[in-house]
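I keep forgetting this: the sequence line spells out the residues, with the fold written below as integer tokens. I include a record here:
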Amino acid sequence: MGWLTKILKGSSHKGHYHGKYGHERTWDEPRNSVEEDIDCAIALSLSELDQKGKRVIEDESQSEDEEQPAKIESDDDESPAKFESEDDEPPAKVESDHDEPPAKISYEEDDQSAKIQLEEDEQLAMAIQESLNVDSPPRHDTGSIFRPFPFFNPAGNRICAGCKRGIGHGRYLSCVGAVWHPDCFCCHACNLPITDYEFSMSENHPYHKSCYKEKHHPRCDVCKSFIPTNSAGLIEYRAHPFWLQKYCPSHERDRTPRCCSCERMEPRDTKYLLLDDGRKLCLECLDSAIMDTHECQPLYLEIQEFYEGLNMKVEQQVPMLLVERQALNEAMEGEKNGHHHLPETRGLCLSEEQTVTTISRRPKIGAGYRMIDMITEPRTLVRLCEVTAILVLYGLPRLLTGSILAHEMMHAWLRLKGYPNLSPEVEEGICQVLAHMWLEAETYSAPGSDVGTSSSSSSSSSASSSSSGSSKKGKRSDFEKKLGDFFKHQIESDSSTAYGEGFRQGNQAVLKYGLRRTLDHIRITGSFP
């Protein structure tokens, strides 16, 4: 079974704050030299206008006929102010804000000089106004991974990308191609402001690094912790090709229990059954597990009915025994012929006379979820035909036990029907086709299930009526249906030459020519058509 290795890479971004934030943290904003000059010019101009507006002209003497007050003209398009007085009157006094000595006003000031001064003031004001409309040069924040914002409008024209309101002269954050109020740049997960210098992006949304890790960093299905990074800083984990279970690579070496049936890693603090031969069985597979020979007889009858429905009835009475792993391995060593699926053989079709230890009574579950009180007895097998017995490993779920029985029954059928010695690819391949057909018939007969588009839907339909008539199956759980799909997946994806490639060649032949024509061709040529 192939295992998948996944490597992921996270994302991280940096933002920059400008101005002060709170009372303890300060983000520096580079000051633009052009803006400093503009601010200085504005301040000088306002100061001059203020001084002009505050000048007060006092006449200490009046004309003999009537008083003539001084006139001040403030409009830009009119002539400058004129002061009329008699020649013998004393000069007016000007009071300043700084209590300086009064300045003497010359009544002989030239009108043309005043006009020139006003024009210069107008030109200065126009230059200041035009400078406000000039775009500031781009800012470059050192250390940022983002490209600098192409330009910044004047402070009064900055628009927050979050609330769409102006930012003004307050603090702001520039990142991801926009400017933000600090309170508007929020995490997409927790909706709290992001004040850290580094943050993460996913699907154009910003996240706190901790929120991003919680949402996107894969967790181990065994220890429930975040899967650690490897030496290269990348996230590396193992994944089951069918169950898509993710787990840390270290669990393949730390003796984390794996179910002998579904092959899933057992999560921490999860109970599982420990069989006498050291195998571990998850509690979900235990629900339908078959534990002794007597308990397996109804299923064996179902397999025989399945073959009969395919017009492949086995006339001889072949004994079927459920055995422990040790007994199966010993029987395999005493068998001269046959092909075995390594690393573990779960079934065997015997042709030699042997004495085999079989399980006669279902063991009980004791303390610590261990099997106890298992009763075994020796069984001497006598050769009455080409097949002496079919052995199957105990403690496996019903669907897996049935597929093993269907496989071994095909070995028996080939021998009893006088087929010649076949190559492992042909014999094991056609036996796997029959096992897959039985699993598919079970899936087809299950209420509300869909038929898979693989090995032999056309042939399994003829056998489904006999298989579905059994009252021993009962209503299957969703997990058992999924388990049946997994066992079919195991057959389809087997990488071995005999069992995997042999199945795919045999399945292709059955789909194209049908089961009967394929078997006839094998009898004559010893190969698939």
